[in-house]
């Protein structure tokens, strides 16, 4: 029993640059999706954003005070 070559058929999928209807599902109802995610996870959002905003505002305040200290 020898090895016999087997012909395989390859299927190649590609998107045409002229047909972009595939991407419309991502942008459909985008504000509703964002609102749903935020309203569902608002505690996690606050716990994530509060330290980031607090640190940023503290750094801005400290930098401004440092600039004002060297002014005179």
From TrEMBL:
Q: How does it sit in the membrane?
A: Single-pass membrane protein
Subcellular location(s): the record lists: Mitochondrion inner membrane
Statement: the UniProt record of this protein carries the keyword Transmembrane helix? yes
Question: Carries keyword Nuclease?
Answer: no
Q: SUPFAM superfamilies, per this entry?
A: Ubiquinone-binding protein QP-C of cytochrome bc1 complex (Ubiquinol-cytochrome c reductase) (SSF81508)
**UniProt keyword annotations, A-Z:** Electron transport, Membrane, Mitochondrion, Mitochondrion inner membrane, Respiratory chain, Transmembrane, Transmembrane helix, Transport
Q: Which family does it belong to?
A: Belongs to the UQCRQ/QCR8 family.
What is the name attached to this protein's record?
Cytochrome b-c1 complex subunit 8-like
| Species, as recorded | Camelina sativa
Provide the taxonomic classification.
Eukaryota, Viridiplantae, Streptophyta, Embryophyta, Tracheophyta
């Amino acid at each position: 029993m020898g090895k016999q070559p087997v012909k395989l058929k390859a299927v190649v999928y590609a998107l045409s640059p002229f047909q972009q209807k595939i991407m419309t599902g991502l942008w459909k109802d985008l504000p509703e999706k964002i609102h749903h995610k935020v309203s569902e996870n608002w505690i996690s959002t606050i716990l994530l954003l509060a330290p980031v905003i607090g640190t940023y505002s503290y750094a801005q305040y400290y930098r401004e005070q440092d600039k004002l200290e060297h002014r005179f």
